[in-house]
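Hi team,

Filling in the usual template for the complex we talked about on Friday. All components are listed, including any nucleic acid strands or ligand strings, so the model treats them as one assembly.

SUBMITTER: L.P.
PURPOSE: interface mapping
COMPONENTS: three
RESIDUES: 1069
SEQUENCES:
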Amino acid sequence: MSWHLTPAQAHEYAHHRADEVTAMSVEAHITHCAPCRDLLPADEDWLARSWEELRDVVDRPRRGPVEALLASLGMREGTAKLLAATPALYRSWLLATVAVLAAALLAAHHLPRGSLMFVFVAPVVPLAGVALAYGRGVDPAHSLTSVTPLAGQRLLFLRTCAVLVPALTLCMSVSLLLPSAHTPGRAAFWLLPALTLVAGSLVLSRWIHLSAASAALGVLWLVALSVMAVSEHAAPIQLLLPQAQVWWAGALVALLGAILLRVRTA
Amino acid sequence: MTTATTTTAPVHVRGLVHRYGTHGALDGVDLDLGPGVTGLLGRNGAGKTTLLRCLATDLEATNGELRLLGRDPGRAAERTEIRRRLGYLPQNPEFYPYFTAFGLLDYMAVLKELGGRRARHDEVRRNLDRVGLHDRRHSRIRRLSGGMRQRLGLASALLGDPEVLLLDEPTIGLDPEQRIRFRGLVSELAVHSTVVLSTHQIEDVAALCQRVVCLDAGRVAFDGTPDELVDRARGHVWERDGHPGEGYTAWRLADGRYRVLTPAGVAPGDTDGLEPVEPSLEDAYLLITGVEEGRR
Amino acid sequence: MSRVAGNTATFARLTWFNVVRLLRNPLLVPGSVAGSFLFVYPLWSVPAVTWRSWYNDLTYSAIAVGAVMFALVAFPATREVRYAHRLVSPLGLKGRVLSLMTASVLVSTLLLGALAGLVYWLSGPPLPGTLSPPAHPAPFLVAAAGPLLSIALVAWTRSYVPVVVAVLAVPAYTLYGASMMASRLDGMARVDLARFAMDPFHLHLPSVTGVAALYLVYLVLVVAVLVLLTLAARGHRAFRAVCLGTAAVLLAGVVGTVAHGRQTYARATPIPDSQVHGARGPSCQVRDGITYCPLPGYESWVEGWHGVLEPNLALLPEVPDERMPVVWQNSFSYNRDLEVPEDRDVMVHDYREGHQPHWRAQLVGDAARVALGVPDLYDSLCQGTNDARLMVVAWLLSTGDGMSRFEEREIIATSLFSYRPSPADLELSLALAELPVERVSEVLERNWERLSSSGGTSQEFAELLGVRLRETSARPASPEDWARLFPGHGYEHHLGEVRVPSAPACD
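RESULT (copied from the run log):
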């Protein structure tokens, strides 16, 4: 091309006053003519901002699938990051939970009264996850994270949520696939005990390590079941009958109250 | 009026006691620390890490008074406020190995409640630059070397330019170049922040600290400037051609002579071939913490 | 050469270190003992221990030891697999994992050996029965499979997954078993997943050499597969391929062994004594005219059976040889292939519930019915209303010692019930129990021909004894009759279950 932009043409173009044909040929010209490009005024701030923006988009770490899913569900970006980033033991727990629940489902369909396996396991699945969710010894980076402002109860509750959501989803799916499950209401018999045990361990964690608290409650649950199994006049399943559910609900409300009180007074 | 001035110090410690079971790790520590770098010296097990963990609000002291930035870490709300303005590098920090360097700092920045995403990412980048990890920002942590992990821990402590910065053995595994860089970084921060540095690296103390605190068996054995510490050693450090024999703390130097420490001093006329020399900070440190007394 | 020797010495030292560390684990011994107790406790209701019951206990203990070791070994295994690459040592990762495997097998063997000895000592040796030599190592391999499986899982997952699985699943599974027991569904509880994996054959016969050998081959193959799978988790591609290939071949061997075993030894396969370990010569012996055919290893029990039968049969006047009972012992776990005269056979089992009245009554009743020629209801359905022979049987049963009055009446009722006795029969049977033994013997002596034939009636017997019966009905007793004559025994409720429209009289 033999012509160059005059300052007047450049001014016209920059202020969007050039006609369409001229604008197109100006654009075609300036893409390969540096001196003419320099005639056009530039918004340095805008450029810098855009560049930073672009750099951030290119440079920031890729989001994991869980984080992306949570973010797409409308969760705040920081919260999604905290929920997705979980201690290494969490993955062991998740794998183990899938394996055990699959085995329980298999047992339910192929063993006489095999659903009992699920009955015994489901209430402690979330508890086991909570035991491995937070604290020195189970969280490798605990010494780093424990002194951040979010540490303590807030991180504890976040991690608990990160455990509860998959645990409850998995257990619910399995319980709906049980041979005896007909309605979601009937399939949720394990839910209140599971939540109560988790709430109990959160309350206890004020005094002892969370893992120890969860272990203590898990052992308590097993002892209760064993006593019922061995006793002549009772069966473990009685702990999950509708009459017992009322008690579980009561205990859960009381424990949640204790947690709320603790959060508010803290 | 003294109380008013001491409580305004960013780190204010009175009679701090901490016990693990029956074992007392801290046995009545009194300290007031302000902006600048304070070196925390002491033998293994003297209570340095315990003191730092107490200051970092990671451990609750068994007894005593502790005020950080004028707040009481015993109260949850005040503790959270302290933690927003505090950076802590623990001894041998561990990370989630499957995180990237950027991802971990980003995660820590979320935990530290640092701004929106852009601001947070900028802060993460700035700190990765500061510790020279910018090029490795997308490497998984398990692929980083020990020194790089140490720098990552340092970057995590530096997030948000904390007003109180507690560093437990920060220069372990750093090469000389990184160590120089680290010193520059810390002295820059120390203009406005209170930095506490627990270390066995005397050169770091000599290069960085305006103040030295020596702990011994959970108590403050010395609190003063490095020069004051060196002054205390005067008259206790000697050199000699051969080994002075049993009962002396002595080691062989590169030139074949022996350096001799005499904690209890030497009786006049009993110098026995000992030539007095100018003590170094290391001599002073050894004298105040490491040498059993009265072995002569 | 010296390098190999050096490595072997290092391997041995590391293995010893691992053994000591495992043994020092505070959960190991209490966990194994508690687990064994939980598994074995329900089986301790059997007072007489045989090699078979001891072996069953041992197998359950092996499961307990294996489960505990499964959980505990995961920790050192994770240590080796995850962090050992940071250590520089003459032994590579594979060597260290192999050492841990060796140590865990040693520890489980040691522990199970101690438990086996303890149970053996508690059960008061010598034990009756036999164990085939290939059966001996099997429980130890079962116990070893637990830690080996755990190490294999850790090697592949590099995480604590096996521990979490064990912590979640083992208590639930144990509770499941316990509640099945408690709800009297033990028969169903035998559908036992763990047992299936540990013994997939139809027959579990430690005394039969063929079966025990197959089982041993199966376990050895499984253990070898586990070891190979563990080794295949790490190393060069070629090495892993070789390990996995060998494991696949062995796995095919496992499947083949199981298929072969299930085909050769189906559930009802009759097994002759010649296949049982320790069988020597003819298995039957005759004492005072009674033939006894114990299973190999149970010869000492003949004394017990004879001690029960002989005094009772001695109360009967001469019984012809062709009516003398043949007492033969069948196994609880398989069908014994033995020729016995069908109309004279009395079956006993290879478990003994001591000298309880019911066991004794069963043996004496069966033998007496053979001697008197009363058909066994299992063989031919018949009606024994007013049959004097049944009265003799009932009388013999009532002469036993050490029974409460209720037990005595219960035993009499049980022996008569299915033959549909009349009210007069019932009354006479009760009256006989009250009469002096000599008087009844005397009457039998004098009228033996008549009373031991199918024509003799209970009315005749009563008249000969001089007993006056208030009950006159000769028709089978109604529920009301049962409730009146045997109050509190509840037979009136069962009557509907045996009502047969028309059964011929027992000849």
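MY TAKE: The CA atoms of residues 218 and 254 of chain C lie 6 Å apart. Residues 51-83 of chain C form the longest helix (33 residues).

Thanks, L.
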